[in-house]
User: What shape does this take?
Amino acid sequence: MTIKNIMLFLLVLNSFESFAQDKSKLQVVTHEVVKTITNKNILSLYIDGNKANVTIKGWSKQETMVKFTFIAKHADKSVAENDVKSFAYTLEEAGSKLEIGTTINHRKKKSGKTIMKCEIEIFTPVSNDIRMENSFANITIENMNSGLDINAKYGTLNLNNITGSCEISCYYNDVTATNINIDLHADFQNSNFNADGVTNGTYSIKGNFCNTEMLNIESVKKINFKIDNGTIELQLLHPLPYKYDIRTQAGQISNYLPDALKKKAKNTTYEFSYKPATQTGDILINCLYSNIKLK
Amino acid sequence: MKKNNQKITEDKMWENVLDGLNEYSYETNRTFLTNAINTLPVYSPDENIWRQIEFKLDQKKSNYKQNRNRIFAWSAVAASLIIALGIWKVTIHNKPNEKFTYSEEEIAVEQLSEASDTLLNQFLAEQCAALPEECDSPRFTELNNKYQQLEEVQKTILKTLSENPGNENILASVRRIENDKIQLKKQLLKYFAS
Assistant: This one.
């Protein structure tokens, strides 16, 4: 490596500071709208988040309450006041489905510099299915026992106390889950998955450039991961009664499972396989470059 | 007086008729009855009686119409009340609970500066010219392709940010992509670090 190249190398490494901050005082106008849908025939929600942060909480009531919070920030109060009114919401019942969404009418806006923010908070019966599409948003779903179908980009998804089935497709959208018992089918592209507190269910994840961490796994029926680039970390509280078939072509397996299990297993840097006499579940992991940690 | 005499004559006649019926044969009775009927007085009603009947009928008809109109009126009032109640319920019950609040915030607005990707590209080009076998490896190609993809993604996100200035979630995505690029840069540079 020449001196010129070393200098260039250092320049590249030091080119990461790409943000600067500028403080300014803004007038904030908040418009809150709360609506309750008492129709007991509503069985599913379809949410088009469109950059709005969405929080969904299951409750015992047989009705759905939706709270929209629209926020406009601008140095001029009258501009903020005008621009907050450019938000519009959709709340439509279509048979057993409730459609929820928000939009911004840019023609109504006075200024292109107004900071616009929208939040949707939904309380709904725990058994209602949820289908959502969203981007550039934080999504939180709590206390549900139903079917979730989520397509999210460039944001985050938090799942808390969830049972049922989940179809999740994420692109640059990290997922955090706590206390779950779900049948998960997920496609995580450039999206990390962190789960803590897994009591049962099946977890089928395919992805690329995806770091997956599942901690405190009490029990599981099946784990089936196919992740080409990334890391996988599994913490099994009771690691013995599973069939393991784990391999990575160019990554590494770090195995901290009990010695009793390791002695019976075929265990190399790239492969770990074990089949007990009676099994309660399968752990199948197949990777290209990912590093796998078992503990 | 005249009426009384007439009544007495009629009574007498009916007595005769009954006596005759009891006393004689069918044929005799028939002749006798025919004669008796012919001798019965003929009455025609007073002309006013038809007007009275007509008047009473008109009165009944009029009462029926009045009752009917009254029922219609009350039904209309009841229906209007029900509709009004319905509208009230719908508007009051479904009326969104709305409120506006005002506040002031001091916000640190992030200004993005141009990332120096050209430097990396220049560096990689020079290194690949010197060490082509490193750059031809599948892993290096995959990482480099990924880096180019991230650059495209970053451009898309920056465009979205320009349409939604100050959006915290979009800014978070820009940061996220930038961090991913840094990680990839590090991995790519590792090939030439030794």
User: Anything to note?
Assistant: The two ends of chain A are 41 Å apart (CA to CA).
